[in-house]
Amino acid sequence: MFTQPLLLKILRRAGCAVLAGATLMTAACAVPVADHHCLTECTPRIGIVSAFGAEADILLAQTEKKHDWLINGNRFTTGELRGNPVTIVLSGVSMINATMMTQLMLDHFHIERLLLSGIAGGVNPASHVGDVIVPERWAMPMEVYWNGDGSVPAACGTAGDVSCLGLKLATQDGQPRPDFKIGTPKGAVSTGLFMRDNFVMNAANAPQGEFRFDYQADPAMLAVARTLKPELAKCGPKNPSLCVSTQPVLRVGGRAVSGTAFLANPDYRAYLYSSLQAEAVDMETAAFAHVAYANRVPFIAFRSLSDLAGGNDFKDVGAFFGSGLAETNEASVTLAFLDAWKRRHTH
């Protein structure tokens, strides 16, 4: 005979709505939603992922009707944020953690859309500390083929062909993207690091799968982001005496990138900007986007800039570390987006 908790779990797995009484339990089973196999809680929700506790804490503080779920030691919080049903999780830093926690969320909850909210390093030198970037697409340029020199890899007999290894070089206008070169007093030196596309498979492209360089953010969510006019702070809440000199702005569009390395190399940052016109770099979002694409779940990401990655080119870097400015502005845009999204789907 099943215990009540076990029966509840079985019914949820079967896609059933459960009505429990003091002594009697009945279940009205319906056809489950396609492609959603929620193991824990099945209310349709927006999934929100943050890497740092400071980023998630601002959102959690405003979440209503909160309920915490512990899954493999990780806390997932369900509730309502600005009128939207949400599941919020702190992923921890790194591509691996972002991948693991995003997939875990999709497995255990009915996530209709994904949103990542956090901070990043700037790549575009025209940006400023506290700006919020909402890229149209994300890439992983640190997925590389590391050749012995700067010549185009020819592992499979022809320049640029590495298909016999199950790989594909990233291309632009039909040609492999140039390798990363280090500047020296005697000129640029090739590293042999050539960008690769990523292999990804989902129900739409199986069984052959596909190679991708960019992961596109959801057009409908981007359209709402373009309507936002948030009031972004110049001074953060932790130390209001530390303020940036340039008013932070919201920018929607362009490409941003993610990688496994904490980027503290100005030459590589300049390479990302010159070769990809990247706006920002972090250690989570492109992995999150890869999981979203593999599960065919629309996504968007909001990233506020903490500094210029790999250098002191930005003024006011101390304002981020001393005042919490970046996470405050990122949370302001995320909350403004959720307000606008709710209005759009209410009227």
UniProtKB/TrEMBL annotation:
Family matches, as InterPro entries: Nucleoside_phosphorylase_d (IPR000845), Nucleoside_phosphorylase_sf (IPR035994)
The leader peptide range reads 1-30
Q: Where is the Nucleoside phosphorylase domain?
A: 45-318
For this UniProt record, the keywords arranged alphabetically read as follows: Signal
Top-rank taxon = Bacteria
Q: Which Pfam families match?
A: PNP_UDP_1
Q: How is this protein named in the record?
A: 5'-methylthioadenosine/S-adenosylhomocysteine nucleosidase
What species is this protein from?
A: Paraherbaspirillum soli
